[in-house]
Design goal:
The structure is a homotetramer.
Chain A lengths: L4 H11 L5 E4 L2 E4 L2 E2 H4 L5 H10 L5 H13 L8 H10 L5 H9 L9 H15 L4 H16 L17 H13 L6 H17 L7 H11 L4 H24 L30
Antiparallel strand pairs in A: 1-2, 2-3
């Protein structure tokens, strides 16, 4: 790099370049919009869209995004992200820290199925062709060969039928009927469900991840943002549980009451070599 | 604890008791409401309120909460929470991890002023009396003696006037006129501003934290939730910046270009004692 | 700030000033020592001391630090820091992320007692006087009035006698006999134990935090570093448990088997107001 | 699962089974050894080995591990893990939180090259054959085809020759001469360096990750533990920098002085559609 201080300082400034927010003393522009025009006039989902996409959504798009955000806030204390936040808050750390420890675990397995399901839908969409069932069978064949039998977005280890799927899918299909979205991904999602029944002879119904993936694909989000938006939603549950726990006066809460001893399956008691 | 297995298993179950969410196969109840009734009918801010407060808000309350959430999403890459998320995503970790590293730093100084300002307002409110200016002067006197001259929620190291304050305060005052909120905390906030001018002879205007604290106090949130709700809002900015950065192909991004060497002010080069 | 680019670039460089490490192409100096002289010649505890204190320790000091680091690595899966790391690794995140979620919860309650005990010892030490028992009684009186009856470093919710205390305290007392440390804090620690028996009529023996606090005070570390060093030690246990868990093929491990339902104590099922 | 409470409680206990640590009131066994026998008699690297491997190392193995841990503690404030911890501590969070935000970013790119290099060495080792140069060329060919031209463990964006490599490699070769390790991985590492020169015509010397990978392979650690052990080492630097920063009274430290404005490359100021 040049040793010229002016060139250096320009490089430092450009190091932190962004297209999201412009701040000068007394002025804040979000994607070009003065913040004071947005406050009170756009919804929180609108703002999430503006920040991540660069423009404001139509009302219909915003409502679909909102429904997805509402649906995913919580899955109770059996979910590691929730249990971790509850345990964390009893250790003498603040809400931001407890939330961070919880959000952090929304990884490929706990927070990633929506993203992976979006990739699957997009692969089917890109494969195109007139015969959606045949295309879907072929893509699933390839997917199972590469990744094994768990199909992200389908089946549930707990709910036989996920009560969130029908109302969310109805909202998408209503929006498709109104021309607000194409409906292609709703069709793909339903076809994956049908193809899984063809493959396995069993009902492996779409779950919350599968229907959220339909919505985010219809709205044009890239797959990694499927995880990102899920995190915004689940952060609400993480906060609510951390806060509830903080009102209960427990200290250093472990995963079970300390009176229930865990089992130990390691080596028997032994003695250190005296020559060591 | 009893050695009775039934008593033990009951204790394990109660260990994870919650009043937030009830899940059975095929059923999800959030604060008692079936999730399928909420989807498409309540807004995301409604859901945040329901999860953290236990009941649904009035429309007017929900709109005030929404405005506060919209206003606080981002403060640009100079904010450590944002810069950290941007650097993090270049290190080969996922969005959930980058967001966690960012959310984690919203501590007492970076994420706490709203909460601290709520405590100050509540102290003034609780002190009561007919003479708000005198009460405010007295509480500020005590506050400064205990905590020093920085008043959380007032003054800004960057903005002479924060453009978010006027529209947010107008929304509160409109809601007070309609009887949706009391307006007491808006009056207290304005009085603190006046009192600071009396104390210092200078304008130390209310900032975003100060006006958000007005809103959250009007809405009846406890102070720690001021931080919690701020985190939900700022998570949007953290996500947007992490995502933008992820599109830029930088690897192991440090705080400045590596060609700009940091200064070293430690001991001069020295040699290890050969007898060590 | 000056608009002069040279002054600006100097300010940027100084922004990241450090006294710890000096790096030039082909050269790395740690506190002034060339890294190549340190490798193979100093121990890992020596390096921890050099990095955090600025100079190398005597052999006796290093051995005491090492014993403290060895003693604190783990407290099993009932400890939230450990359980969190184990749950985290089953969520599809990497070792660094699982460790971060665990380390993060070593807060005031879970990771802070050593630090708090160091502060207590230092207060007794600073109070001075010839009559250590009287001084200790007086400081404890004040401490209990301010903080309640839990004395950090004394008593244990699990171990009647902590097996780590006797060997660690012996090492300190041996070092004091050799003149390597003063022994003042070992005396203070024992006196706190005696004072607690005088106060309560019961044995409330020194625990691991109390004896580690003796060591770190004898070695001249400031109290917050008591927490910092504990984190280095506990990170070993967090890593070992995360690694063991990663070998077990569990996915999204919650705090208890999902077949054991948690209790729900919130509102009964209810229906959303149809006018909403 | 059975509804029998006894079976349920046994399942809960086994849920948290471990082979690492056995705790009963008054007793702590680490991999079978009573903790009181370990304190003062094993080194901190011995304890790291015992916790992660299940047995104590020979003295020669422990010394090699120790050298690797000493060598990797820090790479200065240009490293995101270090800069993040420094920024974090100015936001009003504690050492454990600042360290967590830093450790969290030691991901595939920032903390993973050692692990990836171990995998490369092991692939060469497993390919076997009498002609190490030919095997190495062939494996590198495949590696570059699959992963691109960056070879983990070789080349450095900053140091032409990494000063840590020669002393570490000498320690391995000394240990091989004494029969403490096989020396196979040292040969493989040197051969990769030679093969890269053959491939590119340039010197792309082994860096710290490449030599640490030699050591960890010689010692029999699996590749993911390469990252895990690196984290233990780098945590020392993260702690030292967070602690140094905490002594400097900065508040909400961003990546550069706030007087240096970042550039904004997003849309120009625009006005919200009045009909929205």
């Amino acid at each position: 790099m040049s040793d010229d201080p002016k060139a250096q300082i320009d490089k430092v400034r450009a190091w932190w370049d962004t297209q999201i927010i412009d701040i000068e003393p007394g002025k804040i522009g979000v994607r070009g919009y003065p913040i004071e025009e947005l406050i009170g006039r756009v919804s929180f989902p609108d703002m999430i869209w503006l920040m991540t996409r660069g423009d404001l959504p139509s009302r219909a798009h915003s409502k679909l995004l909102e429904a997805a955000l509402v649906a995913s806030v919580d899955h109770g204390p059996h979910a590691p992200s929730i249990a971790i936040a509850r345990m964390a808050i009893t250790c003498g750390i603040d809400l931001n820290n407890a939330m961070a420890s919880g959000v952090n675990v929304l990884g490929d397995i706990h927070g990633g199925p929506g993203q992976q399901c979006m990739e699957l839908y997009q692969e089917i969409h890109a494969a195109g062709g007139d015969d959606l069932p045949a295309t879907t069978d072929r893509v699933l064949e390839r997917f199972v060969a590469a990744n094994g039998k768990i199909i992200p977005g389908f089946g549930h280890r707990f709910h036989p039928v996920d009560p969130r799927v029908v109302p969310l899918l109805s909202l998408v299909e209503d929006a498709a009927r109104d021309g607000a979205v194409s409906g292609s991904y709703a069709r793909i999602g339903r076809e994956v469900e049908a193809a899984l029944r063809r493959r396995t002879g069993k009902a492996i119904p779409m779950n919350i991840d599968g229907v959220i993936a339909v919505i985010f694909c219809e709205l044009g989000f890239p797959p990694p943002m499927g995880r990102g938006l899920f995190i915004l939603s689940r952060s609400v549950g993480i906060l609510a549980h951390a806060w509830e726990q903080s009102q209960r006066q427990e200290r250093i809460k472990g995963p079970m009451p300390k009176e229930i001893p865990y089992t130990y399956s390691g080596p028997k008691r032994r003695t250190l070599d005296p020559d060591r």
